[in-house]
Amino acid sequence: MAANLWDGRAAPAVISRLYVSPRARGHGVGAALPARAVGAARARDLHPVPDVVATDPAASFYERLGWRFLGTADQRWGPARTVSLRCYAAPDTTAANPTAPATE
């Protein structure tokens, strides 16, 4: 869904789901996962765009990291289930952005 809302120059790279074990929380793993996804996407000249279930706490996490909110969309997850998604795009710059890898 985020790929449909993305309006940037680079093609979108959809980040499906990233999970952190409860035991690993509070150790920077949560910020490291999107940073790796950003690095992998940008190495391929793509722009990361995750879809986040609207009720998932990850939505506020991406916002705290400076990801740009693109909009909402509904997605069917089976014949009788539709979920609301919040769609984001990685920040365009790496300055003061903990999710973007440093440039060399």
Element layout with pairings:
Layout lengths: L1 H4 L5 E5 L13 H15 L2 E8 L4 H7 L3 E9 L5 E8 L15
Give a structural overview.
With 104 residues, the chain is α+β, with helices and mostly antiparallel strands. Helix content is 25%, strand content 29%. The chain is built from three helices and four strands. The chain has helices at 2-5, 29-43, 58-64, and strands spanning 11-15, 46-53, 68-76, 82-89. Strands 1-2-4-3 form a four-stranded mixed beta sheet. A hairpin with a 5-residue loop joins strand 3 (68-76) and strand 4. It is globular, with a radius of gyration of 14 Å. The chain starts with a helix and ends in a 15-residue tail after the last strand.
The structural class is: alpha+beta
Count the E strands: 4
The profile of the biggest β sheet is: 4 strands, mixed
- Shape by Cα distribution: globular
Total of helices = 3
**Poorly predicted residue ranges:** 94-104
Task: Offer a few descriptive terms.
104 residues, alpha+beta, 4 strands, globular, disordered C terminus
Provide a compact summary of the structure.
The chain has a four-stranded mixed sheet with strand order 1-2-4-3. It has helices spanning 2-5, 29-43, 58-64; strands at 11-15, 46-53, 68-76, 82-89. By secondary structure, the protein is an alpha+beta fold.
